[in-house]
């Protein structure tokens, strides 16, 4: 059953009237208290049809996540049981794993969005094993989505050319599938998101496409919120042939700047209603911290509740400071998923 708090948040998202706060970006030793600022997310402009490959098109689309099914037990620990799962996402079957804590629920739930791993070598549940374990041991149901085109999920042949926006659909629908399953071990009024690297970008997209869907979000070492920067940084230097396909279908940023504006969550940041915590290492040479500072500045300018924690000397995968970052994550979710 949805908690009163969950119903209130959902109502806020549906009426698109919210109160948000802004937290100044700083280091893990320098965090400024939030100051409430009124704001309201804006719907896509009705004056022109949205490009079908765009965040406004996802905003206008009705998302259907359902059919969450627990399959074989993959792992039993003293704290939780891990199951193979599948669910339906806008007509596709998506695989993943779910950790269910031992004990009497219902438990708050977190949907995890993993970073880039070549789909040809990816195996179900791969990507964030440390986080999956730590979160379940702290009393969270953890649903880790594989995304479409990964593991035993259905294929979407246009996903790469369409800037992998299908992953955003799969995360949104993972939340809907959790809720529609009406499981007694899941408190569907307390659901959050956690994304890493590419999954951080998926979380950004989810927050702007579906305000009010969840209660809070955390991202680690996220990619740029501007897709063209990710292409230039990751794909173009490797000679990825998908780049030519993307530009043939949608144009370059110079040829079609409006398309590239509409696939960036920064363009729609005014819609965000959930508090966001970002972790980033200063020595990250995979996803430069400058990308995150740009994102944080956009959230702050829009009056949103965003907090940046930086970790001196930490790289992309986090090492010695990972436990500290998870302690901060646990405290953040404890405040917002209650």
Features:
single chain, 338 residues, alpha/beta, Rossmann fold, 11 strands, 24% strand, globular, disordered N terminus
Task: Tell me what you see in this structure.
This protein is α/β, with parallel strands linked by helices and 338 residues long. The protein has a single domain (4-336), classed as Rossmann fold (3-Layer(aba) Sandwich), CATH 3.40.50. Helix content is 32%, strand content 24%. The chain contains 10 helices and 11 strands. It has helices spanning 4-15, 55-60, 129-137, 165-181, 198-209, 227-235, 242-250, 257-262, 289-301, 322-336, and strands at 18-22, 35-39, 65-76, 80-89, 92-101, 107-113, 141-145, 186-196, 216-220, 276-281, 306-311. The strands form 2 sheets. A 9-stranded mixed beta sheet has the order 3-4-5-7-6-8-9-10-11, with helices on both faces. Strand 3 (65-76) and strand 4 form a beta hairpin. The longest helix is centred in the middle third of the chain and has 17 residues, at 165-181.
